[in-house]
Write the structure tokens for this entry.
Amino acid sequence: MNKSNEILIFVEDLHKVFVTEEVETHALSSVHLKIRKGEYVAIAGPSGCGKSTLLSILGLLDSPTEGSYQLNDSPVADLSASQRARIRNREVGFIFQSFNLIGDLTVYENVELPLTYQKMPKAQRKERVQTALEKVSMAHRMKHYPAQLSGGQQQRVAVARAIVTEPSILLADEPTGNLDSANGDIVMEMLSDLHKSGATICMVTHDPRYAAHAKRTIHLFDGRIVEDEYTQSEVM
Amino acid sequence: MGLLLQDFRYAFRMLRKNPGFTSIAVISLALAIGAITSVFSLYNSLILKSLPIKDPQQLRMINWIGSLSPPIFSGRCTSTPDGQQISNTFTYPTYCKLRDDSTNLGNVFAFLEHHPTILYHDQSFTADGFMVSGNFFSGLGIEAMLGGTITPQHDKASAGPVAVISYSAWQRHFNKNPDIIGETIVINNNSFTIIGVMPQNFAGLETGRRIDFYTPIAFQPAVEGLCAIESNDRWWVQVMARIQPGISESELQNSLQTLLAQVEPGASSGEMRILLTDGSGGLSGPLVPTKTKMVNSLFILMPLAGIVLLAACVNIASLLLARGAARQQEVAVRAAIGAGRLHLIRQGLTESLLIALAGTVGGLLFAMWVKQFLYKMLWPSQIVVDLSLDVTVFEFTIFICVGSALLFGLLPAWRYSRVNPIVSLKEHSSRALSHMRLGRCMVSIQTALALLLLAGAALFIRTLINLYQVETGFNTKNILVFSLDSSKSDMENQQKANFHEQVRSSIAALPGVLDVANSNLQLLDRGRNETTIDLPNRSDRHHILLLDISNSFLSTMGIPLLAGRDFDAADHPGSDKVMIINRKLAQSAFVGESPIGKILHIRGSDYRIVGVCGDTKYYDLKMPMESTVFFPCRQHAGGGHLTYQVHTASEPLFLVPAIRKILADSNANVPMSDIKTMTTQLNESIANERCFAVLAMSLALLAVLLSCIGLFGLMSYYTTQRTGEIGIRMALGAQSFDIGFSVLRSAISLVLIGTLIGIPLVLVASRFIKSYIFGIEPYDPLSIAGAIVLLIFVSLAAVWLPARRAAKVDPMEALRYE
Ligand SMILES: Nc1ncnc2c1ncn2[C@@H]1O[C@H](COP(=O)(O)OP(=O)(O)OP(=O)(O)O)[C@@H](O)[C@H]1O
Ligand SMILES: [Mg+2]
């Protein structure tokens, strides 16, 4: 993967307002953000400050109320639903707090899913799924259903699913939130390894210990970036 | 009891919480229960319902079975497979013997069915009547609504002639005149004084037919002129009995047999045995063809309605299962806090019962509405049916209600109770959808059932279309037909013949009339005259149909004359006996030679063939063309009841007033009846098939509707259930189109599986309806393919909405709830 200084994400003056029954929630206000290829960014902040909102806008799950957003040098704020789905599929890998595997599909099928949306030939899919599962050490559980796995294993499968398309960026929303610390550590280590091999990662976390894995931590408060901190230390 | 009440309250709350599910379940059940209740009420009124009299179960019809052939017989007669005859008439003296010598066992009474001409205030019409013995009404145990009934005092030739009329006749012909008692009517040229009006619910003794006039049987010689009342040669009296309480049927049977043997030598030699049939529903048994025919139709319609109900139950079961899946969490919590399995099952069943109750109430309402529709459907075929919902129907519906509640409730309740709290509570992001799988299975079954009904209905509809396309061999357009019955007028035979000739030439002179003819029977009117003859070059006897026709019958009906000549004025009673034969007979009787001038011996006379005409259908479109012989009316009796055919230049019915005027001017008191166009005649001849096709199609469409509701319901649940999953898929980059398409695809795959199950069902079932279809094979690929295409098409429409909703899921929303 490219480890240059190219800008991957360029967000300017981003606003997100939720309007529900006459109540306006300013989830994000005037957010400016640049993320370069190969960066590992943690987003931290108190509950309700807009972390998840930011992440889903970055992942093109949601669109901003106002502001511009360029992903890989092309503006993506005003794309159609179908174009956004395409970009999500090819450029973004999601890892959720609650794993979000599909219960009716096997581990293999879950990981294969994003590739099928690319209409990739079967043989190639198989190879990619195999590689991705090996990366997270879950290849031996390919035929299992999610319900037959532990939480940590499920999250590893979810990571495999996120990286199988070789996306430009991995977005993780509290990936360890549902895991005990041992399993959490395993997942964090996996993300670090991915980062080392070139992946761009943007992760939401409450846990300062895990935030320390990242080279850069963005602190959100009340929908604004209040601090953008680069850590020098290399944490194991 | 408290627990039960609590169950009900909870069930009620659950149903109210899910108005979509509840209304889909209740509506589909109501439609199905309505359908089966309607068919059952038909069945009830035709078969189960008793006469509206006291203790109807004591009534027996007295028939006889044997190889005897009476000297002169009028009545109904049918053969058993082993060659015996079953018949329903006796001589009057035999009846008197049975009546007078069995008084300790029962009350034996008699009647004669007839079709008299009634004259009242210059209005003449024909009606169905009964000539009854003096003890007829007391034997039935029914009293008049107005005035009195016929008693033994009235049943003497010397008594003053009296008549009793039906409520319906009172209403239709006498304007419900309250002073009707004492009015005089003329029945077949004899004056009768009306002494009573029967209650509204008493329409006679035969299901589907209404008897309007009752007169004493002692007047038969005057009114019908069959024979002297004491005649020992003529068998014409139908007999019924009311068994005394405490007497068994076999006692009555034996005693009647003994009495019969005393007057009929055949009865002692075993050539004739008394056959009692149940009389509680009026006339019954093998001698009542309309009833038999309708009963046969019901034997097909009942299962069809049953399948619809089954489809509805499967439908609801699949919805319940789908909902069970959605409620797994709730049930798991209940189980975790200690609800026993039985309790959970009971809870599930209570809910089903509530749905079934609501569905049944809806079904009864629907049935009342369908009843109107059924009336309209059955009316054209002149069948009179009382479809009022009585206790039997009500009991049936209750049975259906509880039965269907168990049918659709048991499996889901059992599944519902089988929840494993540990697994269910642990699972969070991934839901086991095995309930859904069973539900999908149900949808496939439902589709299979719908296919079965649809393919069946398609066969009936194709039968109907085939019947419409049958080549009749004669012209049906712009033909007015009607009957003139001069048999009961006081003209001499020659006068009658002249009368008809006169009427025919007057009609011919009317503007707009192209041609006019008459015949002794109307084509396609079910009546037929047949015999067997010896053909010159054949050893076996040949079956032929006979028809008396006037000159120009062939040209009026557009039947081509292939050789020889039509009848003409030279063919009169004094001249040589001649006939025209159809092509079919010409071909079987005269191979390679001209039939013209040849002689055939028919019913004791020799007839010379003067012409050959084209083949025509005679009495039944379903029959193949048969050998037919036409005689000139004038060389035959030809004076009584004649049917007319008028070929017109424009709408035939416009001529009716002019023809009525001709009749009125002739002053002959000859009633004109059965006025219709030939097209109507043709339609009526297949009324049964049409009625059947429409009913079957309605049921099939109902089944399709139900399967659509089922599919819609399941797919809606499926997509709501999978909202989270759809969100994940969208986050991973699935396009809306992919999502919508996958819903459509999984729905269609269910339908296709259903089709695969359905095809063998269709093939098996079609064997049972073989005798109901015409012109197609029961394995008709076109019908089956058509049904499949329709099903897929309709199913696509049904899942369109859920698919669209799935495609429009907002991934953000979906993931938030996940
Ligand atoms: N769809 C929505 N409609 C209305 N308000 C919303 C919506 N989504 C988020 N919000 C509001 O926007 C704000 C930011 O929400 P967000 O989910 O981004 O917080 P968060 O930082 O992820 O919190 P947490 O750490 O608890 O996950 C909150 O006040 C939330 O109530
Ligand atoms: Mg959050």
